[in-house]
Amino acid sequence: MKKLLVFIFMFIGLAAYAKEEEIFVLPLYMTDVQNNNSYGFETASEIVADDIIQNFLLGNKINSTKLDNVKALTANDFYVKEAGNKFRKSGLIDFEKLVKSINTTADKTLLVVGYVEDKNEAKLELWDVLKLASDFQIDYQYNWTTMVMLIDNTDGVALWHKSYTMPLASNKKPFSAKNFSAAADNYEKVRSFSKNIIAKDVEENVILRLENKTIDYSDNVKPVPNEGIGLKYYKKGIPVKITPPAETIEQQLLKDDTFSL
Q: What's the number of CA atoms in the CB half-sphere (13 Å) around residue 69?
């Protein structure tokens, strides 16, 4: 009997700590054997995606596939590469086609897109820009932009999105690296911004977006004698409720002396 009770409590404890959501975090641009940069760093998209995944796994709200497994699952995915190329050219992404091509059991995908625009507004990988700026001594106020989008895998609709921008150059120091040590310094700055700013903010906002919300308007509504209508409105995934009155119309009519059959 004691063993049975212990088993029941263990099961309840595991259920209490079960993750509520599973989200597939996908960096749009990834490195592999054929696609690497001059410094051997992870892409800007991968850096942010990995930090977000680590935060999800350390928390108790969201479960997520590790980055190595994400890369293995999407290594030969034509639509992921096509989406990356299309975004560079047009700034557009076909969410529905992209998420349907991904082999995942998660019902939501968090797409991470990191890039830097040059003087001609071409979207480039951050480390490629660093290499070009260093080799040709280009002094330009580059900004690193990261777009994060939460997508419903069922219909390919964006549920939430936000952009983050970090200046890569300053008035005193251009974005360049004379050697690998200087490139590594820039890498650490990018990692710090990703871990301490982007990943924390994304986790907080995604959790808020996914939590069911109940709105109680009863305190703001003036009571009207002999009138009471309870309303309840459900929006997909987010129930929004208006607290019903304590009594129904029928109950109030029964108390009214002027009402008779």
A: 8
